[in-house]
Every structure is written in structure tokens, then in C-alpha cells.
Design a protein that fits this description.
By secondary structure, the chain is an alpha+beta fold. The protein is built from 22 helices and 23 strands. It has two domains: 56-244, Penicillin-binding protein 2a (Domain 2) (Alpha-Beta Complex); 248-618, 3-Layer(aba) Sandwich (Beta-lactamase), CATH 3.40.710.10. The strands form seven sheets. Strands 2, 3, 4, 5, 10, 18 and 19 form a seven-stranded mixed beta sheet that branches.
Amino acid sequence: MTVSQLGKSEIPIDGRLRLVGAFIVVAFALFVFRLFQLQIVEGETLRTRSEQNSVRTIRLEAPRGDILDREGRVLATTRPAYELQVIPSGLSERKTTFAVLAQLLDADPALLEDRVGVRKGAERFQPVTLIDDLDFDRLAKVETHRYALPGVVTDVQPRRHYVEGAMAAHLMGLIGEIGRDQLERRDREGYRPGDIIGQAGLEARLESHLRGRAGGRNVVVDVAGREVEVLDEVAAVPGGKVVLALDRDLQREAEAAFLDVPDGEPAKMGAAVAMDVRTGEVLVMLSLPSYDPNAFAGGIDVETWNALTDDEWDPLQNRAIQNRYPPGSTHKPIVAAALLADGIVTPETRVFCPGYFRHGRRTYRCWKREGHGYVDIHQALKQSCDVYFYTNGVKLGIDRLAYYARAFGLGHRTGIRLASEAPGLVPSTEWKKRKKGEVWYPGETVSASIGQGYNLYTPLQLAVAYAALANGGKVLRPRLLLRLEARDGTLLEEFSPEVRGEVPISPEHLAVVRRGLAAVVEEPGGTGYRARVPGVRVAGKTGTAQVVGTEHTEGMEEEEIAIRRRDHAWFGAFAPVDAPEIAVGVFVEHGLHGASSAAPVAQRILARYFEKKAEIGEAVQVSESGWGG
């Protein structure tokens, strides 16, 4: 190609300058347009997105510590709960978002929107919980459509879980949101509104150990509320473990025994307590009717709460420690020990029972209308003869009766590590003058001698008293806790048996009472024969406590008597007779007869206890013999 040819094909310089200029103008125009679009047209939207694409601090709640039974089996623990939340500032398409959510959750969109409401200021950036325990099916639906749900997020929170449901609910207690008055207490320093704390039972008593310490995480989130980046994190510290003296197998057996009623009969209500007479360890604590504490774990709904509080039988009440009842004839062993100790009777002293006892102008009936004839203390306990105790109780007097009853731990709190324990009541001349401004009448001692009148005890107090009868007179503090551990199992605190007092009764006199109680169960004619356990000698005492005067029910068949007018049923027991290990107190509210209603419950608890003991013994023998791998 020649030079002249090359020159002709080139674009003139001024043309090229115009082309470059045009390109610059177009580029600049596009830049200005885009700047105008970003700053003016989309400025507010982008500014909001910028604010939303920010650092958010997320509180990491600490899992509460586990509660275990004596064999390490979990009774209360923490499980993950998926929360569905909305960030109000992220709801760019509010109506559409709630419509889609409602379809996914099978819910009313208006209700979802009302729950979020209108948030202003800093509240726009705080998550609002729509559902606090989302099941996996609905969680999967939400996660699948998250791209179309700006402002909707899911989060995992620890949630209390009671493995056995209603079993031992009153002992476990319950948790709930901290109240305003609780926040003001000095021992609640570090808590904030909305925190979940123990509100009853062991959950409340051991709150500081079970609670743990919350952590936190700083994250960058985008406009849809999705985490983009984790900047830093302080892990939550889980709460410590609690190992109870409770035996899950015995607790289950006690509950099954209460619920095992013939078709057409009302369910049994009441309480059962079983204690190791050597250590005071509480193996069983049952109160029925009960409730499921899981209903409180995420905040109880109004309908469930109203059902519990409106129930005429008060399922929230722990009948084992909070309710007081006249003990009926289960009080007679305490009276028998007092009669022997003060020399009112000897083991050979006999009283004639014609079926009634006259004192002043009143006639007091024995439960056996035709009478028991001549009975000594052994026969009086075995056959539960009222006249024997009427006659000698009056001789002893109410103040000496009260002295010995209190020595057995009756009429005052046992010291168990639970709040709201009722003190019970042991009447005396001083008590009546102070409380009622009246003198004590000798006729009132007649009723007090068989556990009627003003006497009021809790089922736990009865178990403590029978444990003292069994172990030679030591009044033990009921022990719920074996030890406290850190999350990793490190021992923090161990609890030892505690003797709170000793009854002022000689071993010889206590032995007389124990033989009489053994006759109640083991000898022909004893009222407690339904508590027999094959291969084990059981001592016990039945009791029936009047709820209304006999004139209100005389001539009526038992099934015709309204439940609230039926007598209460009791049974106190310990076993084995010669080397006692376990004491049981059973109370059946409006159960009519201790022999038919309460004794079978005690029998099942005792039978399961010794069945387990035999199983452990067999396992040890197999291990020591080298069999079993």
C-alpha cells in the first residue's frame, strides 16, 4: 500500500475528535443519569437497604442445666426450638409477606400482621417472634421460600423439656418470664425483661445453678435479614446439672398405682412420698392431679392457664407438702409411743372395747360397732381400736400428746428444699388459747387421740414420722438433692444426711410399736393386709379421716356419697420390719378407706423398691462370678 493510499483511508483529525467527544458526552450523561437515579429516584430505598445491611447483636440464651434422677436418667433437659421472627424494617412488601406466610403456616394473615403491629424507632430493627416453637414441616416450608420473604428470619433458641411430662411436675416446678417485681429484687441482678426463670419447685429453688450465662454474636445481615458474616461471638455457658435422690422407676410406679382404678370409678387424687429411713433421701414425691410443665416452657397460653386455675381440684397445688389434712388412725402409732414413754400403759395393759367410749355426756364410737373386746397395745394397733386410744389418750392429756407429736417432726416444716411447705398443726392448750381465745376441753383430747379434731399434717410429715419410727427415733431432714455438678460432670457440691432431732422414746418402746405395726400388715385380722409384699415383712398403719360428720352420710351407700363428702384415706408404712430401709406415706383425697384405697398404692411402691433391689443383687452376683461378659 502506498503512502497516498494510506492517507486517504484515515479519518480526519477533527472527525476523530468529534467522535471521542461524543463518547465522553454519552458516558458522562449515563453517569449523571445513574447518579440521579441512585440519589434521587432510588435514594430512600437504597438508604433503607444500607441501614438494614448492618451489624446486628444476637443474644445467645444459655441452655438450663439438666435435672437427673438418682441413676442419672434425664428428667428435665433443654432442646432446640425454632423461632419464626419478623424484622419490621425489612418488610418491604408487608401485605405480600404476611399473605405468603399465612399460606405456608395455615394461619390468618391479619392475625400475623396484628402480632407485629406498627413498630417505630429502634423497635423497627428488633425481631418480633411470630411462632416460638416451629415444627420441622413448617420450618422447611418457610426456609424453602425465604427468598420471597424479606424481613422474615428463623432462629434457634434453647427450650426447657420435661422428658416425663407431668410425672413429678410439682417437684420439678415450672419456668416462666420474669416478673416486674422479681426484676427489682437484689438476687435477680443481671436479669432483664423477657428472661425466663424458675418460678416454682426445684426450677425456682436452684435457679442460680440451673440458669447458666447468656452469650452473644455480632453478625452482618442483609436486607432480607439473612446473616452475611459473623464478626465475633461469645458462647453461652450452659447451666449446671442437678442429681436428685428421686427414683424414676418408683415415681412411675406410684403414679400408675394412683391411676389404676376400676372402670367407672373417679381417678384418685392425693399424694405419695417415699423416703430412705437411713438417709432421708426422697425416692418418690407424687401429687395428683398434676399438670404438664412443658406447657409453661415457651409461655403458657391463656386457654391452658385458665383450665388449670379454674379446675376445682387445683392441679397446681403440691399436695405432698402444701396441703394439710387430719391424719386419722395413722396418728395412733405416735400416740402409742407416747403412752409407753410416759408410762400410761405397758405392753401388757388391756382395755375393754364395747364399741364405744363415754366421756362426760358424750359417747364416742369405735369404728367397729360391736367392739373389739379386751385389747392390749399390740392388738389395738393391729385392729385400729379407737376405744383403746380414747381411754388412754385422755389420761395422757393433750399437751403431752402434742409434745411427742412435735418430737416426731409433725406440726412443723420438715426443712425440705422446696418453697411453700405448709407447717401442719399439732393442737395444745396454749395453741387454742392463743389462736381461738378459748380453753381446751378434755373431750377434744378424745378426738385428738385418734388423729381427728385439729390435727393437720402433710403427707411428707407423715413419711418423716414413720421413718423415725423405723430407724430408731432419728428425725431426718428430707433430702431431695444428692449433688450439684457442672455441665461436664465435675462435682460442685454433695449433700449429706441431716438429723434434725431424736424422739425421746426408748428403743424398747419403739420396738413395741414396730411389732404392732407389723401385725397390721402381716398378721391375720390386720387392717393393712393389702400392703403385703411377697418375701418382705412390712409394717404399716391404715387411716381414715372424716371430712363431714357421720350424720351427713349415715345410711348412704359409698357410691352415693358426693366425692367432696367422702372420707380421706391414709397409709403409712416402712419395710423390712427387722432392718427398715424405706418409709412410705400415702394420702388419697376422698379415698374413703386407707385399707382399700391407700394401702395398695404403698404396696406397689414397696414391691417395686425391693424388686429393683433384687435385680441389682442378681446383677452384682453375675458380675462377681465372671459371667455376663
